[in-house]
């Protein structure tokens, strides 16, 4: 009975994440001006924040198993939100944030928004891989699924200490 409830929660979470990802993904770029407009939309700071917040809701539904991932995402969302709140028109696109940090020489610093963007993308990649595995093999253990998704997405970017946090 408990497993059924957990699976139902995961199914709702998967659909939430899928909807959020579909909202972020746009059609392939067109020509000229249309392509430029689509690129600006695609790199919207608010879109990334919206999808990241949707992902947090999905992780809440899965439960405390992925608490470390959830905390990382929340921290990176907060960093981007704070910058965006300072000047929402200036920082309306991820590209504007990246260009500014590269020009200032701050893009490689631990607390940069550049790193926040990179880690949010990696976290989403991990989550998509995990949810796809859960959909394909609903009878498999969550532990196995987390480990498989972790190995194929986040492990190459983590040291051994961080790797320990993703063991279920």
Secondary structure topology:
Blueprint: H1 2-24, H2 32-42, H3 45-62, H4 67-86, H5 94-104, H6 113-136, H7 142-153, H8 160-164
Give a written overview of the molecule.
There is one protein chain. The chain is mainly alpha-helical. Helix content is 74%, strand content 0%. It has 8 helices and no strands. About 7% of the residues have low confidence.
CATH architecture descriptor name = Orthogonal Bundle
The backbone outline, from C-alpha atoms, is: elongated
Q: Which consecutive residue ranges, at least 5 long each, have pLDDT under 50?
A: 20-30
Strand portion, in percent?
A: under 5%
Total domain units: 1
**From N to C, what is the helix and strand string?**
HHHHHHHH
Largest sheet: none
User: How would you name the CATH homologous superfamily?
Assistant: Glycolipid transfer protein
The CATH topology annotation reads as Glycolipid transfer protein, GLTP
Mean pLDDT: 79
Distance between the termini: 22 Å
CATH class: Mainly Alpha
Structural class: mainly alpha
Rg over C-alpha atoms, rounded to the nearest angstrom: 17 Å
- Number of E-type strands: 0
Give the fraction of residues assigned to helices: over 70%
DSSP helical segment count: 8
């Amino acid at each position: 009975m408990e497993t059924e409830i957990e699976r139902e929660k995961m199914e709702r979470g998967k659909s939430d994440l899928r909807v959020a990802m579909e909202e972020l993904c746009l059609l392939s770029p067109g020509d000229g001006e249309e392509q430029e407009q689509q690129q600006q939309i695609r790199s919207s700071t608010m879109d990334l924040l919206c999808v990241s917040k949707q992902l947090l809701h999905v992780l809440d539904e899965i439960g405390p198993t992925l608490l470390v991932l959830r905390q990382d995402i929340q921290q990176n969302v907060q960093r981007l939100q704070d910058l965006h709140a300072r000047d929402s028109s200036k920082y309306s696109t991820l590209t504007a944030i990246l260009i500014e940090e590269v020009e200032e020489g701050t893009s490689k610093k631990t607390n940069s928004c550049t790193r926040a963007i990179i880690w949010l993308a990696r976290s989403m990649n991990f989550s998509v891989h995990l949810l796809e595995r859960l959909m394909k093999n609903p009878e498999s253990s969550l532990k196995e699924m987390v480990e498989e998704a972790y190995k194929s997405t986040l492990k190459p970017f983590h040291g051994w200490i961080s790797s320990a946090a993703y063991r279920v």
